Sequence to fold (478 residues):
Amino acid sequence: MRNIPGFISLPLALIAPAVIVNAAHAEDYLSIAQAQKVLFPNASIFLESAIHLSDEQRAQIKKIAGVRQRNPIQQNWRAEQDGKLLGYFLVDDVIGKHEFISYAAAISPDGKVIGIEILSYRETHGGQIRKPEWRQYFSGKTLNDKFKLNKDIPNISGATLSCRNVTDGVKRLLAIHKIALTQA
Amino acid sequence: MRKTLIVTLLSSLLTLPAHADENLFGYIKGAEVLPDGALEFYQVVTQRSDKGVGKYTAYNTETELEYGVSDRFTIKGELKGQAIDTSGLLIDAYMPGDEKYGLKFQGVEIAGKYNFLSPALDDFGLSVTTGLDYLVLDPHSGRDKDTVSIDLELELQKYFMEGQLIWAANFGTEATRAKRKPIDNLPEDFEWPTGMEVEIEFWAGTGLSYRFVPNWFIGVETLYETEYETEVAMERQSLFAGPSLHYGGADYWFTLTYFDQISGGGEGFDGQPDGLHLIEKTEQEIRFKLGLNF
Fold:
């Protein structure tokens, strides 16, 4: 391969600093603490723990959710009010078109989605993903419900991969709740 | 001063609050289309170099706007430019002698892409693109030649590993009518047909791209092309392959591809390396694409 010609090296030299600038422009909407307040406004304490998922548990999760559990460790918080369990707060990353999408899900003790919040979203299209109008479709969902994108959960044009991976991700978190949290 | 101005202008462009769709590959196209109302700007520069004999370097530019008419249909308009520098290369009926010029207007293209299946929604993506080209410069000799082409291409795409690994494939055909302009002072006994030529081209290609860290994709792609022409039946066939590096962010994307001719055949000329087609192709190409969405 020959030397990189000028018409390529010049744009690369221009783009490199822009990449750094771009990284600094990442959109973080909510911190974990802020999302906890939104999803469990009545909680007085959040008890953090990490579940170490065995290979067998990950296989079960994939069987239930239809997608792999990439990380063997799942952070979660027990949301409690005066010693009473209100539910579980889980933070997850799924693949967006360019970067990971971070979101949080609140799941009731009986395995029902209380709500989800988008913590960071850095994609080209699909900013509507963080709007309540879209996120509301997850509320009340259980593993007995269907999670078909564009049928049970509306698709957002230009952000189909992001919508699909968040949708599959919420179902996977419900599977984690069933496999590892309710039996902890 | 001029260089500083260019750098400033391009830097300003890069800091616009743009949005981007993306081409993961230099040559293979994916099946996705722009969403309704989205507008995207592309700048593509391709360097084609080395015919094994003499000196040959050509640059082709494509300056393009794409617009999402609906969530399934995208249209584009494109201006093409060409620069060439060739010497010491004489190929009867194809390369009439030395030629050198800077960037000149080469032609225009309009195209429409319709998406039948979305790769993220339907598990398997399928789109069809049809386009119309008009060129005034021959991409090979660099000489004046009026060319009208119509093409049709199928684009297939599949996501694996939740989108971390992407496969795409293309199958296409192009029909061309072309007429060269006469040239004065041709070498003795040199043939330079100026009658109407009709050609049909077929191609098939595939690529695989893997996101190794957020925003960055490494890929490999390959493209087989063959062309049939009225005079000589199969005029050429070639297989190119090479790596691609792609960056995709919320504001813009770029792709750099090195494409090497692995094998080729068809018409040849004295002195050329064996096993390659070097009349209408070169030994290697380097393509850089930049995309901005508004």
